[in-house]
Amino acid sequence: MSWIVTGGAGYIGSHVVRALADAGLTPVILDDLSSGVASFVPEGVAFVQGSILDRALVEKTLRDHDAEGVIHVAGYKYAGVSVQRPLHTYAQNVEGTRVILEAMDAAGVANIVFSSSAAVFGTPDTALVVEDTAKRPASPYGESKLIGEWLLRDQAIATADSDAPLRHTSLRYFNVVGSADPTVYDVSPHNLFPIVFEKLIAGETPRINGDDYDTEDGTNVRDYVHVGDIAAAHVAAAKRLAGGEPIEAAYNLGSGDGLSVKQIMDAVARVTGIDFAPEIGPRRPGDPDRIVATGELAARDLDWKMRYTVDEMVRTGWEARQAAS
């Protein structure tokens, strides 16, 4: 039996694929390569190129590879850009999830791990986010991820008395960084680490957006979690589903304390050996001082923990990006 990893040729998905294989499970990648990278597909792993919107292809992939479950990582992940492209975001993230669930139902596949997002919380009233913190997504991206969670919930209710009742969980996280494989790096043009790395490679100075926040050093604080830890949590969730063990509908994969942008910049300078003083730009509208999630439930059920220091996060990401040059 296998686990189908949608978006398995992407930065996060390809790490999930490697973690599955390392755990003795059989991953199968389904990816249309719209943002995935063909070279991220490990040798020997089955790869189906196509869209999650292709209902027939999704069902055929599930049947052909005797799928035990799906780890659904594919999606349009750019929160800021989603404001300009809401229809595209909803098509990929909402309709794509609906199609996967429909194909799973037809193929009798009952387990799904959904890669959700801390964007479902929007700008919460509390600096420390827990699973039941109010959901107020501030972008079409965040809304689409929350709707995805609703789809899983509703399909589980609808299939509760069937031969294959849906078992599911959603994993929410903020900023995924680093690399657990030197051949895989973050290719997003919108994430902090690749933005800073590309600036340094080009001989330019990275920028901090605002240094007057109500935090210890004046720069805003967020969760930064290593991609290797994120991948391990997906695999632990898949195993728990397949084993019929109790599982929560959603888990926050958070650090509990967070890191400031200045701390990240200081670590980048230390690790790369490039001495720079970041430029200070204006605040981004609506950017809160601090948002950090706890990971207590995930630690209890999914062996979630922060296994990497900030310097290790930077080092692994920088080395993977350098190897690609």
Automatic annotation (TrEMBL):
Cofactor(s) essential for the protein: NAD(+)
Pfam family, one: Epimerase
Any one GO molecular-function label of the UniProt entry: UDP-glucose 4-epimerase activity
InterPro entries: Epimerase_deHydtase (IPR001509), NAD(P)-bd_dom_sf (IPR036291), UDP_G4E (IPR005886)
Domain called NAD-dependent epimerase/dehydratase: residue spans: 4-254
Keywords: Carbohydrate metabolism, Isomerase, NAD
EC number(s) on file: 5.1.3.2
GO biological process, one term: galactose catabolic process via UDP-galactose, Leloir pathway
Annotated metabolic or biological route of this protein: Carbohydrate metabolism; galactose metabolism
Catalytic activity: UDP-alpha-D-glucose = UDP-alpha-D-galactose
NCBIfam families, alphabetized: galE
Record family assignment: Belongs to the NAD(P)-dependent epimerase/dehydratase family.
Protein name per its UniProtKB record: UDP-glucose 4-epimerase
